[in-house]
Amino acid sequence: MQASLLAVLIAAVALGGCQRATVSGDSPQMRHGRYAGIGLYAADPLWSQMKVADKTKDQSSATTADDQTIIVVVDSETGEVRQCGNMSGYCVGMNPWTGPLGKERSAPASLSKHLAELGNDSAVSNEAEVVTENAQSR
pTM to 2 decimals? Predict the structure, then answer.
């Protein structure tokens, strides 16, 4: 009886020191905030053609046409993915796991022109070819 009680006591003390293992990068010490970076991407010609909700009236404010880089992040709590312009700060989000953000802010984006329609402008067409070539080389 005393031997089994001693064994239970030793097991309880030994297991009491155990902690639940965490997945690498999931522990509070490893995370540096709620949003995790996915990447930085060049703003292609279609980004500036997006119909922006709640356009500002301030003429000095940057627009999507001024964005040179698209910053893509994921919300680690909700799974929402956001694409944001570096100068305009305008973001488009997508989260297939919850309700929609609203028609004007959900993928697919509403465009004033499609890529094929931009092909008539040689400068835009050349820029689109460079972006396409860069994407294919990855």
Answer: 0.52
